[in-house]
Predict the 3D structure of the following.
Amino acid sequence: MHKIYISYAWGDNGTDGGDSREQAVDCLCEAFAQRGYHVVRDKQDMPYRKPIREFMNELAGATALIAVISEKYLRSPYCMYELTAAWDRGDFRHRIFPIVLPDARSLYDDREQFRWVAHWKKELQDYEQQVAHIDDAAKEGFLQKLRDRAFIYQRVSGALAGLAGLVGIAPEKLMESRFAEVIGQVEKRVAGQAGRWETPPGREEKRPGRSDPMGRWAGSPRTFLLFFIFVTALGLWGEFSPNALRTQIEGLAGGRYTLSWALVAAVFFLLFLLQYFQKKKEKAEPQAIPTTLTDEQRQRFLHSLRTRYRERIRQKMDGRIAIELELSYSRIGASAPQLLRFDEEAQAEKDIQGELAGLLQKHRHLLILGKPGSGKTTLLLDMALGLLEKTRKNPAAPAPVVFNLAGWTGEQPNFTLWLQETLASAYDYPKELAAPAIHLHQIIPLLDGFDEVGLHLAEEEARQQLRRRCLDAIHRYMTATDAPIFAICTRIKEYTEAGGNAPVQAQVLVKPITPEKVRQALQKALHHKGPHRYAQREAAANLLAVFDQQQAVQEVLCTPFYFNAALQSLYQPGDEAIAYPGEAESLQQFLVEQYVYRKLNPVDAQPKYRVEDAQRWLVWLAGTIGNTKNVSFELADFQPYTLRLPKAYSITYGLAFGLAGGLAGGWGESTIYTEEIRKWDLSKLRSLRTWWNILAFTLAGGLAFGLA
């Protein structure tokens, strides 16, 4: 059952303003009680020891929220957090029922709204200065209140504008009518939401109306009724006054004019009846919108995740020797106040034992850090598979879903909406269930590739700004949804340049591999029995021959990516005599070039393409992916505008639209007279020559039109 909440400022009984507010709220609650409703108010209904923040977030997401706006309300951090959080959740216009008291009536003036925005800016600045003068060890109790004030300031202008856009009624008139208007509107809202999931934050429900004129008419009974009336009127007009239109229809229908228009009218009338009774049934029996996958859908979804993660790990490893990675707690990029939010065990930099999935379950909000190629994504995929195993034993366990943050461009209104859209598009999740999956915590977001945010931008400063915005968006997502569990994966450099301080309770660092472990892995590869074993044995022998002689080789091979690249590329006899670059950066570039070359020129297979052609098209493909701001590519993503040659683009569209337009023009030629129509012999269409002539002329004309 949907609850009705009330948000108002209290605690100043004995004053004129406080007594009048209490009287108005008591009268309102009593009026609702007489209708059989219970209005939830924190002063009376908040359970003992329940966290205030939890109650405020619950209130902000209510189906119906009555806000009693007063001067004290607009100054109260608690009240304004409730109001701005409600605005941030979306669907503000349909969920909020304001009662503006006389001392806040000037709220409808833009200048008054500016005053309140300035008030909360000053409130935030003053509180920041007070917190700055406190020792770091004593700040923890004040940091959340500071974040709340920042949250209010960022949203207060939108919330006040939303309130000012709603027509209100004077409180005196409302009390005279025992709040009949408010109760009526709330009842409509609650009745309209019966059996439905609440509108997801950040996306208002689109309803047919002035802003959506086609939604009011498309597929509605009145549309078919109007068509029925139009066809009937046109048919009767032709009956009593023969004209050219009737002559044409008789020619096409074999002289059955009356039967033709009567059948068309009957079809529209039948559609009208079907739509009418369907709409009537929907109003009488509102259907609940499902909020979860069916058991069969869930099993298919989990199976697809399991298959996808295993395939990605297989592609990354490619049958190579796996080196066990070491983890440790880290404080990189975390300020002193942020460290106070960490779990006690995670505040000290020390080695970690155990799987990453267990660490996520333990700390709930986890950040995975590492250098490029250190194996972060592979660890994240391993963690996702570990979490998927838990869904076998517990059908209600949330499903781990890996989201690539490189696809976040900051164009979405909020981070929650981006998660919903990505879940639906990247994982073929039912679109109507994506929002409940996020807000009901049916999935665990695993956010990979924070360092790839903004790679489509040319300037480094713009990339850093977008990464800071991404961190802010994740902060707001946490605040709005109280996400119980999630993980972020990133490189160290890009994370620290973005300012750090992710909203997590522990940071885990993927430690570099030691040279001794690399040597052991190479010796193990000498006896490798998996795929590509002969090539890997040769590569391991070549690398061991120079491992102790060159410092750069030891340094670079301590990164898993370059270790695996070397095993896959330096397997030719004589590779041990290669003059390896003496600097680490040059050696890294050398290994990448060798890796690409070996992949394009496999020893055990004949290459299908010339190396130069393959490299050129790979560069073009990378540019195409960058221009479209994508992080993955499938053949289904190909569009005509991705063709390299502009002429090919024009020819493609010319053929497609020109052929269709030419055929339509050939059939609908307006210079054909009615006498000719009546003498048209359809039997000629059986001739293959006739079709060839039609195709040739329309194709030529359409192509010319498309290229023009």
About this structure: Residues 194-218, 672-678 have pLDDT under 50 and may be disordered. The chain has five domains: 4-192, 217-284, 295-510, 515-607, 646-707.
